[in-house]
Amino acid sequence: MRRTLAVAVLTVWVLLGLPATAHAGGPTSVLITQPAAGRATALYYTAGEYAELERLITSEPHLGDAEAPGAGDATTYQLTWLLHDVQVWRTDALTVADDGSVFVRTVFLDGTGGPEVGDTGPRRVVRGPELAVLLDKVVGRSAAAATAVQPVQPMGHEPTVAPAAAEPTTRWFTLAGWRWLVPGLVAGLLLGFLAVRRGAPPEPRRVLVDVSPSDEPARRGSAVHP
Fold first, then answer.
1. CA dist 107 to 33, 127, 176, Å?
2. Domain range for 94
């Protein structure tokens, strides 16, 4: 009897207190994980899905105990509601059966990291199929966005560098290019050196002849009478 009364009190608390929590110092965000699939996402209280998710979880759940399906036959979600995106305010363990039924177990915390202050036990959500569709939509959208991100290369991995384009081969006999510059300079210097050495043609050699005074009249006579 006491347990049933405690569950009823916690349920009333959920019904009356949760819709206004985002506006009166309550949780500001929720972290949604699907452990079996390794998927996760988060919603801020300003998002439309946040209010809808909160409404579906707290909409007139059945009182008393409920037998949730085994983990192997169902899809499980873990919802962590955070105060100021840091402190845990409450957690919801959701189990979605194959027929779309949803069972939730809520654990309340004091928001300071202290012990639990309440546990509702498993309850069956009235609008379970709608809640299951919403969870699959939100978490699936996040997973699709994650697969679109390019994978990051691990540390130490050398980036692949594309080989540089090969330069066109220039034949040695091609007239264009610097290959003819050095031979041209050498040929020009050689021709200049040869031209300097050759110079102008030599003049006729002059011979100095010693003429004595006794030979002067004869030389003059030979000059008058050839």
1. 16, 20, 85
2. 2-145
